[in-house]
Amino acid sequence: MGIGLVSNRVLQWTNDTLNQMIGYSADELVGQSARILYESDEEFERVGREKYAEIARWGTGSIETRFKRKDGGIIEILLSSTPLDPDDLSIGVTFTALDITERKRTEESNTRLGRILDDSFNEIYIFDAETLRLIQVNRSARRNLGYSETELQELTPLDLKSEFTSEMFTNLIQPLRDGHKDTIHFDTVHRRKDGTLYPVEVHLQLSYFETLPVFVAIILDVTERKQAEHEIRRRNRELTLLNRVIEASAVDQGPEKVLSIACRELALAFDVPQAVAALLNEDRTEAVVVADYAAQDHPSVLNLKISAHV
Length: 310
Fold this sequence. Notes:
5-stranded antiparallel β-sheet, 3 domains, Beta-Lactamase, 9 helices, alpha+beta, rod-shaped
């Protein structure tokens, strides 16, 4: 840590660490205005104004600033100053200069990363690995769920995942806690603030938020994909229905057999528990159910007569 002594903002003494930090020798610094340490007049004035105001109020002052090295390089500094005699600053003010360049770079990198995560179209959740309390939830997730950031910080993933009990979720994430797996993937359903549900695909891993162990979940809203898959299944069932009817007709099976096949395939295609086919009598006054398909918990209505009059 760099250490020095100033009087009326003129350098009186500097230690070797400070000298090495900024690239000057002690002989080059002692007797010089502290302005030599700063990259601009404006920064020199700002630091003096704000730091000495803190000294007047609290007896000591700290501020983040930037020092300019002799070679022109810039370093980030946490500067703290304390007078030898609070009642007479001319006697001297000691200061310490801590190089926080790497810390600032890390903070800036984390800030940039945070912006990238917040702008992601995927939903991203960070939650405490022990308490499961949500720590950070990005904009896409907040928008889809309908919760504010403050509201979400009072929740855990269990408040959003209606299909899971506490025991089920603990068992699910235990391989990550034990280090047996690096990541897990699963499908579930999320519950919004208004109670509506939507299907999601979850990619979960254990990580660290600074020194805190956390789970990071990248979640995809797969509503459109599920709808597309459902539509594909429905179309496939329709094609199967058509093919089965064509096959039955080709082998000259009776109309009841063809209709029975059609009822089964229609029920499966449209995901309904029962489908029936009825034929009108010659005078069109009555229809008789000649074929039906019913799920296990639905009774057959085969041969049921239905009046054709409304």
